[in-house]
Amino acid sequence: MKKFRSFINFDREEAWLNRMACEGNLLTRVGIFYHFEKINPASLEAAARIRVDYQPEMRAEDFTDYVTLFADSGWRHLAGSRNSGAQYFAAVEPSASLEIFSDEASKAQRYRRTLTGRASALLVFAIATFVFIYSGAMGVPPEDWYRTPGLWEMSGLEFVGAFAFESIFVFFRNIAPRLIAALSLILAWQMLQQYRLWMCSRGEATTAA
C-alpha cells in the first residue's frame, strides 16, 4: 500500500506513521509516496514507536555506521538512504531506548539540518528563476508560446504532428521556468515554516533545561 502525504512538522509525521502502524501498516519506503507493508495489528511491530531523523548526505561507510548505531540501541531502520536526508526508525526491540534523541536540544537540531539541506536547493532554483526572468522567458504571454508559422490554420495529422513537436519546446521554453519559480516559492515557504518550528523547538529545549 502507498499513500501520498507531505509533512513539514516531524512530530506530526511521526504521529501519523505510528497510527498507520497501529492499524497494521508498517512503513517500508519513502519517496513521492509513503510505502507500507501489512503487519498483524497485534504484533510487536505494530506497537513500535516510529521516529524520524534528518541527516545530510553521508558516505556509504558513515551511513552503515549510523544505522548500526541505532540498531545496537534497539532501533530498526525502516526507510531512508544515505542521500535521502530523512531517516525512519522503529523501536522493535524491548530493550530500545524511549527516544532516538538524547534531549530536546538534539531533537531540535534535525530542523536545522533540514534547513541546511534545503538551502542549497533553494539557491539553485532561485538562480534559475532569476535567469529566466532576466531572459524574458517569464514575460511571454500564452498566446505567443507557439511560434510555428500557420500552426493554427493546419488540420488533421499535420496539425497534430506540428503541435506535438513544438509542445516539447514550449514546455522547456515557457512552462518549465514557471514551474521552477513556483517550486522556489513553495520551498521558501516550507523553509520558513521549518525555521519557525526550529525556533519553537529550541525554546522548548531551553525551557526544559
Can you characterise this structure?
It comes from Gulosibacter chungangensis. There is one protein chain. The protein has helices at 10-22, 60-72, 104-135, 156-208, and strands at 2-3, 25-30, 34-38, 49-54, 75-79, 86-91. It is of the alpha+beta class. The strands form two sheets. A three-stranded antiparallel β-sheet has the order 1-3-2. It has a three-stranded antiparallel β-sheet with strand order 4-6-5, sandwiched between helices. A hairpin with a 3-residue loop joins strand 2 (25-30) and strand 3. The longest helix has 53 residues, at 156-208. It is elongated.
Condensed summary:
The chain has 209 residues and is an alpha+beta fold.
Topology readout:
Elements: E1 2-3, H1 10-22, E2 25-30, E3 34-38, E4 49-54, H2 60-72, E5 75-79, E6 86-91, H3 104-135, H4 156-208
Antiparallel strand pairs: 1-3, 2-3, 4-6, 5-6
Helix pairs in contact: 3-4
What does the radius of gyration come to?
Answer: 23 Å
Number of helices: 4
Which segments are poorly predicted (pLDDT under 50) over 5 or more consecutive residues? none
Q: Give the % helix.
A: 40-55%
How does the major sheet shape up? 3 strands, antiparallel
Overall pLDDT confidence: 87
Helix and strand composition category: alpha+beta
Our measurement of the CA-to-CA distance between the termini, rounded to an integer number of angstroms, reads 42 Å
Into how many domains do the coordinates divide?
2
Order of helices and strands: EHEEEHEEHH
Outline type: elongated
